[in-house]
């Protein structure tokens, strides 16, 4: 299994970014996908999950601002991030079935 994340960057507070993660080597339609993040000096935390049916869950701090979605035709999971805050600055990772990790993409939100 390989996961390729992209879409990170530098954005001002209040702005938006959309992360993508392409999976290969798995039966993507049956996979649960998650986005995690790790801020400097902090532990990695779960941000959002989407199961194979499309049901979603979010950490409280991003509810109403972030949206996780998937396109099974493209083996891709997305994280649309809006109303970004400096506290959202972190390396963002995608994860497949609570096992396999992508390489991370850096999101920096300036105040």
Query: Span between N and C termini?
Result: 37 Å
Q: So what's the overall shape?
A: globular
Q: pLDDT below 50 for ≥5 consecutive residues: which ranges?
A: none
Largest sheet: 7 strands, mixed
Return the structural class. mainly beta
Offer a quick outline of the entry.
The chain is an all-beta fold and 111 residues long.
Structure, described:
With 111 residues, the chain is mainly beta. It has no helices and eleven strands. The mean pLDDT is 97.
Index terms:
seven-stranded mixed β-sheet; four-stranded antiparallel β-sheet; 111 residues
Explain the layout of strands and helices:
Layout: E1 2-6, E2 9-12, E3 17-24, E4 33-38, E5 45-50, E6 56-58, E7 66-71, E8 76-81, E9 90-96, E10 100-101, E11 105-110
Parallel strand pairs: 2-11
Antiparallel strand pairs: 1-3, 3-8, 4-5, 4-9, 5-6, 7-8, 9-10, 9-11
């Amino acid at each position: 299994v390989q996961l390729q994340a992209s879409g990170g960057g530098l954005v001002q507070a209040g702005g938006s970014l959309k992360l993508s993660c392409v999976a290969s080597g798995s039966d993507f339609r049956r996979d649960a996908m998650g986005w995690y993040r790790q801020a400097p000096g902090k532990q990695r935390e779960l941000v959002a999950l989407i199961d194979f049916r499309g049901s979603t869950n979010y950490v409280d701090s991003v509810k109403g601002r972030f949206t996780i979605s998937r396109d099974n035709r493209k083996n891709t999971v997305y994280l649309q991030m809006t109303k970004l805050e400096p506290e959202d600055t972190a390396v963002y990772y995608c994860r497949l079935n609570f096992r396999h990790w992508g390489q991370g993409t850096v999101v920096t939100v300036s105040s």
